[in-house]
Write a structure and sequence with these properties.
With 391 residues, the protein is an alpha+beta fold. It is built from 11 helices and 9 strands. Helix content is 37%, strand content 10%. α2 links the parallel β1 and β2. The longest helix has 19 residues.
Length: 391
């Protein structure tokens, strides 16, 4: 993880990002971020590309809090997120983290923001700490978006509770629509709750930078932002200098990820299923009839038309998703592979299909393995004694 933090920070942190003295300073030759000569009251451990940390930076910008009070430092200065030194400050091993001189350490961006709103309530905008709509939007973001946002940039699942990128994207789009529905059609001003900036704006805006930049990389898996949310994003970026500054910080990090080839090997971004359709697709669509024995949201099971045993059922994923053969499987496929095996076990217990005391469950892989259809399928064979070796 230390190598990851440094690799993200070194190419990007070549200049100061924060005006008014609140700066990510140039990296030193030892790959550590220099702090100001004076000792600040607080230190915010964060990186420019961090969307959750960016909400804290928006608040610092708009309240005009200088580096003499809050210095912003890369976790690499403490050896990285998983180093003993950093874990002593935040046992969760995550960022952002706000340390308080002579006080407790405060992890989690929402908690940091609420501390800043309270501690610096006499400076700049209040960020509407008691506004129910603002608090609700921030809560939806943290509970239902932050937990799955890894589907936009992580190499493989899980993405929160979701085992596939498609499912996580579907949930992400649902949550964005829920927030969009909370935005008043006739609101006055550029911000989510009207004419005054709120915690909701600071919370949601950096994540929308991720969404805007990363959605298009996943083609048909992702769609555009909902209408009101998209307009808010464009308006606040164009009309609020502090939000525009954060956009440049976060987007700069994303561009560096792209330059480094982050998405080249990520499923549905740089890697997609481009092999031709098979007879199984016609069975799934109903174009070709089959004797269906199990029909579930993600899989289909049907009797083999050329049975090699008294009971012979094929179990296939409805969405091939690159699984033309088992050798093509990746961690992206862990969920469906598990579901296929569970379904095969259930079918093997079904005596009404002709199965007796056990079954042979087989996956033929490639030409040498006897695979005939380039769409992963599990054979469940039974109703007679099986022998070994199978031949």
């Amino acid at each position: 993880m230390r190598r990851l933090i440094v690799s993200l920070a070194v190419p990007y942190l070549q200049a100061s990002y924060f005006a008014n003295g609140l700066a990510f300073m140039t990296m030193s030759t030892g790959n550590q971020m220099k702090m100001s000569s004076s000792t600040p009251k607080h230190t915010l451990y964060d990186l420019p590309v961090s969307n959750n940390g960016a909400r804290c930076r928006i608040m610092l910008y708009k309240k005009g809090i200088k580096s003499e009070e809050v210095a912003i430092v890369s976790p690499a200065e403490r050896g990285g997120l998983k180093s003993d030194e950093y874990l002593a400050l935040n046992p969760q091993g995550k960022m952002p983290l706000l340390t308080v001189d002579g006080g407790m350490n405060i992890p989690e961006s929402d908690t940091i923001c609420r501390y800043l709103m309270s501690t610096y309530s006499d400076r700049g905008p209040s960020f509407l700490p008691d506004d129910p709509k603002s608090n609700l939007i921030a809560r939806i973001h943290d509970m239902y978006i932050t937990t799955i946002q890894g589907c936009l940039y992580k190499a493989s699942p899980p993405f929160g509770i979701y085992g596939t990128r498609q499912d996580a994207f579907k949930e992400l789009q649902k949550q964005l629509q829920i927030i969009d529905d909370l935005i008043s059609d006739d609101k006055d001003g550029n911000y989510l709750c009207g004419s005054e900036v709120s915690l909701a704006d600071a919370t949601l805006f950096p994540t929308m930078i991720f969404v805007k930049e990363m959605f298009p990389k996943f083609g048909p898996c992702a769609t555009e932002l909902p209408t009101k949310l998209s307009k808010w994003y464009d308006d606040v970026k164009a009309n609020d200098a502090d939000f525009s500054k954060v956009h440049e910080e976060v987007n700069g990090g994303i561009k560096q990820w792209t330059t480094n080839g982050r998405w080249d090997k990520i499923w549905l971004a740089g890697v997609r299923d481009e092999e031709p359709a098979t007879i199984f697709d016609k069975i799934i669509s109903g174009e070709i009839p089959a004797t269906i024995v199990k029909d579930e949201p993600k899989l289909l099971a049907f009797k083999d038309i050329n049975p090699a045993a008294p009971a012979h059922v094929l179990v296939i994923p409805k969405n091939r998703n690159g699984l033309s053969s088992l050798r093509k499987s990746t961690p992206e496929h862990s969920e469906i592979l598990g579901q296929l095996m569970v379904a095969a076990g259930e079918i093997a217990r079904d005596t009404s299909l002709g199965f007796g005391d056990g079954a042979r469950i087989v996956v033929n892989d490639g030409e040498d393995g006897g695979q005939e259809v380039p769409h992963l399928h599990v054979h469940v064979l039974g109703g007679r004694q099986m022998y070994w070796p199978p031949g």
